[in-house]
Specification:
The structure holds two protein chains of two kinds. By secondary structure, chain A is of the alpha+beta class. Chain A has eight helices and eleven strands. By secondary structure, chain B is α/β, with parallel strands linked by helices. In chain B, the strands form five sheets. In chain B, strands 1, 4, 5, 6, 7, 8, 9, 10, 11 and 14 form a ten-stranded mixed β-sheet that branches. A three-stranded antiparallel β-sheet of chain B has the order 15-16-17. In chain B, strands 18-20-19 form a three-stranded antiparallel β-sheet. The chains are: A alpha+beta, B alpha/beta.
């Protein structure tokens, strides 16, 4: 099944790069590529020495974002690629009828802004869901460096492919007929992404609002809460405000695989 | 007339033998009325229906801050259920028996205008909360809210139903305070049809002299008829508010009142100290100071109430509340799920409380806010389509830790030191080193027992929960025995 393959792909790519020590405090690290905790899953993974210094010079470290701060909007010119260093961001796009569709939630170590790669402006918007820090690499400068550093080019393809695979999980999720399978798949993926950056994959803080989660999963807010309540009643999760602890990962996994839970959409 | 101090002695064992008795033990649950200790320790202080208390609210917390707290409260994967309090500040006749915000309404159209504003207040508020958040509690409170007529109450309930998801489950708590002078059994039928299932009736004293002194006359028969009607219409809980220390009240008269009330078997009885604030409420000046019972009599009245209610099978819940053993509050107390919030004791887990009306308090997430308490200011804010917020407070981490400790004390009669340390990431003994020092004399006097794992209010301390809680209040100095006259009103 395609979603199984996709999830395997995500899981596999996580391992060779997961050399980060668990519990590393990303905030306290020195702000240079060579010393960055995310080094191994980010652009500099395969390069060092003078090449790394060249890359480092084009990376802009932005001042911290606060909740609600917009990183870029649809139409923002001179697009950049951004790496989330800490916190969580969401990306979204405005649909023709004016509704906003959330495209993804982005955790530390993940890359956003690839929507701007093809042209002169961003095609999506990105906003901080909590205090967050990002590194910015303008595409124009990145192309210049990448042209002369073959290792960087290869790593760039890897990173892009990784993000592409991750984003493919969303349509897979949306293809699920059962609301519970969508949520379970999301939580499962979320936990896996935390594990890949060396963080506790059973203790999640969902910094997105219920409304945002509902939008992303194509559900109504009532359903989101009902599903969380049910998972809590079944002992799969414990939910305390925004903190979600996964008590029974195997059960969550089974639900993510789409075992019928009786709740169908419409 | 001089009244002897009556010290009620219980047959319970002496303090030394009580130590370490668990809170749910039915024997330990019986408060021990020790007049000497109470007169030494019962100083004026907060009732801790919230921590921090309203005196810490400030006007830096404004409508924008409230709006932000409401929006954040919608964001949890499982948002809290809601609780709605509607304040009705008026009564039909001048009633000068309590120090509570009230406005004397002589004309019905003032009431109608106020209801119009309540409707718009509800409308504004509901826009801030997601529509699927179930409302488990509704309370119409104030001095005597039944000055609203049936049509007005129906209108308000209809508006609430339209704007919020009001629960229809039997476990809901939809309550209203009634004035026995004006309510009739037919009103009870109407209230039941509107979804109310809880009732509280204010009774000061059945003795006519005492009632005349505070301009309230209400008959025993009328009160009994209301309670019977409530029972008939399936009201889950009935509560009677009983006041001691009312002008002209004597031990003899109060004994008679207690006997009459106990015979009616309301499920809950609240024994409140009569409050008198002459400077703010001119009507109360008509109660001549010399008619007020003296301190010794007031103490004896309280002792009498505790003894009489416990002897009649009521369980002491905490603070000023008593309930029959099969009442929800008593069950929640036994099961350790009792809660205390701005509306007093409750069986519902933490909800977000929305205050509607003049002077009402909201508690959303970790923020408190209070509406303007002057009617003109409240109505003009509503007229300008603004939230009528006057002041409030966003709790700090320290506030949250102390609120949790005080809540444990008020509801479970003890503080679990290890659970508290784990929950908040503190070392209790270090964090509360000052509080524990303040607690020492209370331990020495047998009000409180301290072990390595818990702090427990002993039978002698149960009527002084407030004094014990004050040790954990960061906004107070040391509670000082003999600092103020006993039985000052909360």
């Amino acid at each position: 099944m395609i979603e199984q393959e996709l999830r395997n792909a995500i899981a596999q790519r996580a391992h060779p790069m997961s050399v980060i020590h668990p519990g590393l405090d990303l905030e306290t690290l020195r702000q240079s590529c060579a010393d960055c905790a995310l080094h191994d899953m980010c652009l500099p993974a395969a390069i060092d020495g003078e090449d790394l210094a060249r890359l480092d010079r084009v990376v802009k470290r932005r001042r911290p974002l606060e909740r609600g701060d917009v990183l870029f909007r649809e139409g923002t010119e001179l697009p950049s690629l951004f790496v989330v260093r800490s916190g969580t961001l969401k990306t979204s796009t405005t649909l023709p009828e004016g509704d906003v569709q959330i495209l993804g939630f982005h955790l530390p170590g993940e890359i956003i802004g690839l929507d701007g790669l093809s042209g002169e402006r961003h095609m999506a918007s990105a906003e901080a869901l909590e205090s967050a820090t990002v590194c910015e690499v303008p595409f124009v400068r990145l192309s210049e460096v990448a042209a002369s550093v073959p290792g960087l080019q290869l790593q760039l393809y890897r990173v892009m492919s990784r993000e592409f695979v991750r984003e493919q999980l969303h349509p897979v999720m949306m293809g699920r007929k059962q609301a519970m399978a969508r949520l379970a798949l999301f939580l499962h993926g979320f936990a896996e992404r935390r594990r890949s950056t060396g963080l506790d994959d059973t203790d999640l803080t969902l910094s997105m609002s219920r409304q945002e989660l509902a939008n992303y999963l194509g559900l109504v807010i009532e359903t989101v809460s009902r599903l969380f309540s049910r998972l809590q009643a079944q002992g799969v999760l414990s939910v305390d405000r925004k903190r979600v602890r996964i008590l029974d990962p195997a059960a969550l996994d089974a639900l993510a695989k789409g075992e019928d839970d009786g709740v169908h959409l419409h | 007339m001089h009244v002897e101090l009556i010290v009620i002695k219980s047959s319970l064992p002496a303090t030394g033998d009580d130590r370490g008795m668990p809170a749910h033990d039915p024997v330990a649950n019986i408060p021990l009325f020790d007049a000497a200790l109470i007169s030494r320790y019962d100083v004026s202080g907060p009732r801790y229906s919230s921590y921090p208390t309203t005196s810490q609210f400030n006007d830096a917390f404004d409508a924008d801050a409230f709006r932000a707290s409401a929006l954040v409260s919608n964001e949890d994967p499982i948002p809290r259920e809601l609780s709605i309090y509607v304040h009705v500040p008026s009564c039909l006749g001048p009633c000068y028996y309590r120090g509570c915000n009230r406005i004397i309404v002589r004309e019905r159209r003032l009431a109608e205008r106020y209801v119009d504003h309540l409707v718009r207040d509800i409308d504004q508020m509901s826009a801030l909360f997601d529509h699927d958040r179930r409302v488990m509690q509704v309370h119409f409170g104030g001095v005597t809210p039944n000055f609203l007529d049936g049509a007005q109450l129906r209108r308000l309930m209809d508006v609430l139903h339209r704007h919020f998801d009001l629960s229809r489950e039997p476990g809901r708590e939809f309550g209203i305070a009634l004035d026995a002078r004006t309510a009739t059994p037919q009103d009870i039928a109407m209230l039941a049809a509107l979804g109310f299932n809880r009732l509280s009736i204010g009774i000061q004293d059945f003795d006519t002299d005492a009632q005349l002194a505070i301009n309230r006359v209400q008959g025993i028969a009328e009160t009994r008829a209301l309670l019977d009607a409530a029972e008939h219409h399936g009201f889950r809980s009935t509560s009677v508010d009983l006041f001691y220390g009312v002008p002209l009240q004597t031990v003899e008269r109060f004994t008679r009142t207690l006997e009459l009330i106990v015979a009616m078997r309301p499920r809950r009885i609240v024994v409140r100290a009569y409050a008198r604030f002459p400077p703010r409420f001119p009507a109360q000046r008509q109660s001549a100071r010399h008619d007020l019972p003296d301190a010794a009599t007031r103490l004896a009245l309280l002792g009498l109430a505790v003894e009489c209610l416990c002897a009649a099978g009521y369980l002491y819940i905490g603070m000023d509340h008593f309930a029959l053993p099969d009442d929800d509050l008593a069950i929640a107390q036994r099961e350790g799920s009792l809660q205390r919030n701005l509306q007093g004791y409750s069986t519902h887990a933490q909800t977000d409380l929305i205050g509607i009306g003049v002077s009402s308090i909201s508690h959303v997430g970790t923020c408190f806010s209070q509406n303007r308490r002057d009617l003109a200011g409240y109505e003009s804010a509503i007229d300008a389509a603004q939230l009528p917020i006057w002041r409030g407070l966003a709790m700090s981490d320290d506030d949250r830790i102390r609120a949790d400790v005080i809540q444990q004390l008020m509801c479970r009669n003890e503080i679990d030191l290890r659970a508290t340390s784990t929950k908040h990431g503190i070392v209790f003994e270090d964090y509360f080193v000052d509080s524990l020092r303040r607690l020492d004399p209370l331990v020495a006097d047998g009000l409180v027992a301290r072990s390595r794992s818990r702090i427990t209010a002993l039978p002698r301390g149960r009527l002084l929960l407030r004094t014990i809680a004050m040790c954990f209040d960061a906004y107070l100095g040391q509670p000082n025995a003999n600092a103020s006259p006993p039985f000052r009103t909360p």
